[in-house]
Amino acid sequence: QGLVFLVGNGLGLALALYKCQAMGLLPTRPSDWLAFVTPPQRMEFTGGGLIL
């Protein structure tokens, strides 16, 4: 019973980390940690809404 609890919590934590990484919330690039490293240039931009 305790082992199932630990495995379930481990899977929940792994899923939360995966989702945060997919949204870009985790500092995974060197520019996230060092102030003098320039962030990578975006290859494309997206936007939404109506053109008036």
UniProtKB/TrEMBL annotation:
Q: Which Pfam families match?
A: EMC4 (PF06417)
Please provide one cellular component term from the Gene Ontology annotations of this protein. Answer: endoplasmic reticulum membrane
Where in or outside the cell it occurs: the entry states: Endoplasmic reticulum membrane
Q: How does it sit in the membrane?
A: Multi-pass membrane protein
Q: Which InterPro entries match?
A: TMEM85/Emc4 (IPR009445)
Keywords for the protein's UniProt record, in alphabetical order? Endoplasmic reticulum, Membrane, Signal, Transmembrane, Transmembrane helix
Point out the signal peptide segment. Answer: 1-22
Quaternary structure note: Component of the ER membrane protein complex (EMC).
The UniProt similarity line reads: Belongs to the EMC4 family.
* Protein name, as recorded: ER membrane protein complex subunit 4
UniProt source species: Gymnorhina tibicen (Australian magpie)
The coding gene here is Emc4_0
